[in-house]
Amino acid sequence: MNIDSIKNGIVIDHIAAGNGMRLYQLLGLDALSCSVAIIKNVPSRKMGKKDIIKIDSKIELDLDVIGYVDPGATINIIQDNLLVEKRTVPMPEQLTNVIRCKNPRCITSTEQDLDHIFKLTDKEHKIYRCIYCETKAN
Amino acid sequence: MRNLINIMDLSVEEIEELISLADDIIADPQKYQDACRHKILATLFFEPSTRTRLSFESAMLSLGGNVLGFSEAASSSASKGESVADTVAVVSGYADIIAMRHPKEGAPLVASAHATVPIINAGDGGHYHPTQTLTDLLTIYHEKGRFSNLTIGLCGDLKFGRTVHSLIGAMSRYAGIRFVLISPEELKLPSFVKQEYIKAKGIEYIQSESLEEVIGDLDLLYMTRVQKERFFNEEDYLRLKDFYILTEEKMKLAKKDMCVLHPLPRVNEISTAIDSDPRACYFKQAHFGRYIRMALILKLLEVQV
Question: Which residue of the set B2, B51, B230, B287 is catalytic?
Answer without folding.
Answer: B51
